[in-house]
Hints:
3 copies of one chain form a homotrimer. The first copy, chain A, is an all-alpha fold. Chain A has 9 helices and no strands. In chain A, helix 1 packs across helix 6 (94-118). The A-C interface holds A 25, 27-40, 42-43, 53, 57, 60, 62-64, 67, 70, 73-74, 84, 87-88, 91, 94, 143-146, 150 and C 57-60, 121-122, 124-125, 128, 139, 143, 146-149, 151-154, 158-159, 202-214.
Amino acid sequence: MWTLPPGDTVLHLLSWVALAAQSMTAALAAGRRSMDWVGVCMLGAITALGGGTVRDVLLGHYPLAWVERPSYLAVTVIAAFATILIARLVDRLTTAFLVLDAVGLVVFSIAGCEVAWQINVSPPIVIVAGMITGCAGGVLRDILCNDVPLLFRAELYASVAVATGLVYAIGFVLKLDGDLWTFMTFAVGLSFRLLALRYRWNMPKFVYVGSERS
Amino acid sequence: MWTLPPGDTVLHLLSWVALAAQSMTAALAAGRRSMDWVGVCMLGAITALGGGTVRDVLLGHYPLAWVERPSYLAVTVIAAFATILIARLVDRLTTAFLVLDAVGLVVFSIAGCEVAWQINVSPPIVIVAGMITGCAGGVLRDILCNDVPLLFRAELYASVAVATGLVYAIGFVLKLDGDLWTFMTFAVGLSFRLLALRYRWNMPKFVYVGSERS
Amino acid sequence: MWTLPPGDTVLHLLSWVALAAQSMTAALAAGRRSMDWVGVCMLGAITALGGGTVRDVLLGHYPLAWVERPSYLAVTVIAAFATILIARLVDRLTTAFLVLDAVGLVVFSIAGCEVAWQINVSPPIVIVAGMITGCAGGVLRDILCNDVPLLFRAELYASVAVATGLVYAIGFVLKLDGDLWTFMTFAVGLSFRLLALRYRWNMPKFVYVGSERS
């Protein structure tokens, strides 16, 4: 009889792939700004690990994942460095990396919800923790690249993280079966993100041309 | 006979108003940069809650206020979102919002001092904690909007926070009556800020045109 | 007979000098952006104390050094303020300040390794903690000045911190004599940095001109 593999194992494997993918796209962004090799590796590591780090610092959840397991840090640094060598290839695989980035967004959001759930915060904060885990790395990347964070300007990115967290929290409040629900959450989140990319769904913008004050 | 209401209750009510006001002015700043709706809400929440969050992270004071009471987070998100609908109105009420922002600066500074005092740090750090609480949210807003923080460039803003903290710390060292002194501190801080706005008081600038090195 | 003075005492004295020097060069950067006096002092303090602060927040190592000993904060604020008065002099002493900055980089890196070692993290994280302590202050300065961090773009700065941490970690793993090895580490790190400055050693850059995507 076929059974689902344990959800945590699958998520764990996917999160390794997602860490590498996020580090590699950040490394390309670093290359567009002519950073040196050390800067490329740092930007990769900060982008890939930044979301979980911000979440843990805000929740006071120590030690941080990469402090406890430096292998997380190693994989992001290696992925960023490898990107220097195979930049053309990474760039040609745009679509693949967009999918991997979407996987990362959803996996990190779920992982963030799980950490928050384990330390017994209220459901709204579980969702916020998921959103921070999925999104904060990209915000740090954009700040370090001296851009207004892309997250604030375009695409359903944060919304996907919030939707993922919402689905997760529903299962958690209703005490549904863990593994199955995790798969459901993953499927919903990933589909939402991929559809948003495919059909260029966008959040409406708030464009305000008022008196210049701040 | 008339008695003062408990200082903490008044401060608490004022802080709700100030949270909403700071979130709304941040939302206008987001609109000037054409952020999308999610970005507007995030920028509002980060601006309004950022000061207390930075203080608590630096002092290791967990759980954060908005983690413990998600209603804080809710009020800032709702205020930011409402701003999208009533932007013209908010902008026309510039003066009212400047006053509310001043109230927020002083109330947050006092709240920051109180938190620091409760965990028994030294008086200079009590003042610094007040300043961080009052000012750091605006610094985060400016970083996310890709500006040099306004705080570093103009107006008596940080100075008001420092003065507020100084008055607070004097009462604390002299063991003066809590509620009465809190009102005094609030009155001094608010007057200072409003006078600074009215008469355009400015800190002197340090303008240096030297060899370009960093 | 001549004996080495205790390494910690020497490092401690050097770190005071380095704190002041880093605050002063940050103050000059503030002056180039016409910040006001309060902004100058803040930028100085954040630059000089930021590295240790980021490290402690990431490691959950409380209380922060400057919270426990506000004199650290005082020295950076005073140094920044003094720079306003003697800017021309500071600028003319460029070489001296580059050396002091190099001393600071190495001393802070060693101090960061020591803190990490005391809380029993693994050797790779000891090195990372040293690097963060040496470099993060400058990154914060550049973010607040609205620049892409210099660290990511040029010079062997982070590399010196990593090399210093590596030498430190070797001694730590081999259980070599503390004081003597600390001096060795300091000598290696400082020489590396000064040679890099003198001969304009640079990390190779990753320049990527691809399709604009992020």
